[in-house]
Amino acid sequence: MTATIRLQREAFDVAAEVTALTRGRTDIGAVVTFTGICRADENGEPIAALTLEHYPGMAEAEIGRHVEAACARWPLLGVTVIHRYGRIAPGELIVLVVTASNHREAAFAGAQFLMDYLKTRAPFWKEVETASGNTSVKTWVEAKAVDEAAAARWSAPVPRRGAAK
Q1: pLDDT tens-digit profile of 128-142?
Q2: I need a labelling partner for 106 at 20 to 30 A (CA). Which of 3, 29, 47, 120 fits?
Q3: CB 104, CB 77: distance < 8 Å
Q4: Is 114 exposed, middle or buried (0-12, 13-18, 19+ CB in 10 A)?
Q5: Concatenated DSSP letters for 106-145?
Q6: How far apart, in Å, are the Cα atoms of 131 and each of 26, 38, 86, 122, 135?
Q7: Which of 77, 164, 78, 152 minimizes the C-alpha distance to 117?
Q8: For 47-57, what is each residue's pLDDT tens digit?
Q9: Residue 151 scores a pLDDT above 80
Q10: Residues in CB range of 52: below 8 A, 6 or more apart
Q11: DSSP annotation of 88
């Protein structure tokens, strides 16, 4: 299983990342990608930018633990997780999750699991900068109940991959 985890300020190229994960691999039958993009509004309020902060070293290790958990649950053949930090303007890419497997079910489930984790448990802090006239207001984003509910579905025990059903 190939795993890439990167936290970076600079933009990334989705197609290049998928190519890097799948190049020369004839065992992969499905690739699922999720790309998070900075919206121009937060709860109906126009925003100027998001600023994402993280705890270097700890964030990569925590994401790595969840990549390992995803690989234990589903037969994933490759995973890429790239998360940006710093100031991100509307329209810019924030996060990329790529999962590869023999079949689509595992690739979809693995990607959903990892995104639900990134939204609720990853050590990132998000600040929204709204612009109203000449004034800029920054507020930290609180966890959302809908994201917590989505993540809760993964807490039920699941048979280990390859186990008899």
Answers
A1: 888 765 555 666 566
A2: 120
A3: no
A4: buried
A5: HHHHHHHHHHHHHHHTSSEEEEEEEEETTEEEEEEPPP-H
A6: 49, 15, 18, 27, 6
A7: 152
A8: 899 999 998 99
A9: no
A10: 83, 84, 85, 86, 88, 94, 124, 125, 126, 127
A11: E
pLDDT of residue 45: 80
Summarised one tens digit per residue, pLDDT across range 1-27 is: 999 999 999 999 999 999 999 999 999
φ, ψ for residue 56, nearest 5 deg: -55, 140
Task: Report residue 24 as tokens.
Answer: 């020369």
Residue 138 tokens read as 């920054």
| Structural domains of the chain ordered from first start | 2-155 (3.90.1170.40)
Q: Which two tokens stand for residue 40?
A: 């121009």
Contact 63, 122 (CB under 8 A): yes
Our CA dihedral for 83, 87, 91, 95, rounded to 10 degrees, sits at 10
Phi, psi of 69 (to 5 degrees): -65, -40
Instruction: Work out the pLDDT band at 99, boundaries 50, 70, 90.
Output: very high
- pLDDT tens track for 25-36: 999 999 999 999
User: Could you write out the DSSP letters of every residue in 18-64?
Assistant: HHHHHTT-SS--EEEEEEEE--SEETTEEEEEEEEEE-TTHHHHHHH
